[in-house]
Request: fold
Amino acid sequence: MKRFISLLLVIALAAMAALSMVSCGDSGKIKIAIVQPMDHTSLNQIRDKIISTLEELGYTSDKAEIIQKNASNDASLLPSIYDSLISENVDVIIPIGTGAAQVAASKTDKIPIVFAAVSDPVVAGLVTSLDKTDKNITGVSDSIDVESIFALAKELTPNAKTFGLVYNASEINSSTKIERAKEYCKANGLSYKEATVTSTADMQQAIAAIAPDVDAFFTPDDNTVASAMNVYASFQKQYKAPIYCGADSMVKDGGFATYGIDYDVLATQVAQMTDRILKGGKISDNPVELVANPAKLINKTVADDIGIKISDNVLAEYTIIG
Reply:
């Protein structure tokens, strides 16, 4: 009997020691993981705004650990990044972009996932429909109003009859919008030429092949193209062909104009949704959101460089940079 009691004491002490080790190793802070596939202005803007908004909502360094991961333009690293986060028992994962969100969804069906900037989460297989989030994933879509961007192009550059569509066909967020652009062109008597890229290294050659034959360019919120806006903008200046793009950050990086996504607004919505879920809100009660207000942006420096006159009415309606 004494041996039995002694054994129980040993087991109890061992258990207490184990619990003590867990307690010492666990800060007790909420763990929020943000994962992006690469560095470029759009993704970094989203990340930084999510973090600052979370801090405003009370997720300061004494209460929360915000873990930032970056695949550095190597998608093959994403699975191991998520494996590491899952092993760390993070409380929520915020993937930025379609590819990052798809890998996150494939890795866990338990940890809540709040994606940022997934253009078509239904086509991407993340949700059943925008208003039906019946798994562990929801978020904020950056679907853009392609038709409004082309309407802006018609107003600012009415003589543009042939558009160069520059995009990475493997990005679902981009290819779905390019299809809408093609439909718009066909319905409105416009022509188009395509320049598809697989990496930033392709940009120079792909755009050079179509640049002499187009009057303007269009690119949605394409991560690959956004990473090499300096290359893109050099053709804009050389051929006096404005770049109409899908996001405010792309205009800031040298594009001409957008009626597109304001990534600060998107990121704020992502942070607010994350806050609701961390406080006990159900994924099913938080359907996918669209960005509340579009970014209406024109780069005046580009306009001057390529000789586009902007009317006073447009100047009054749009945010002018440059």
Q: What stands out?
A: The mean pLDDT is 91.
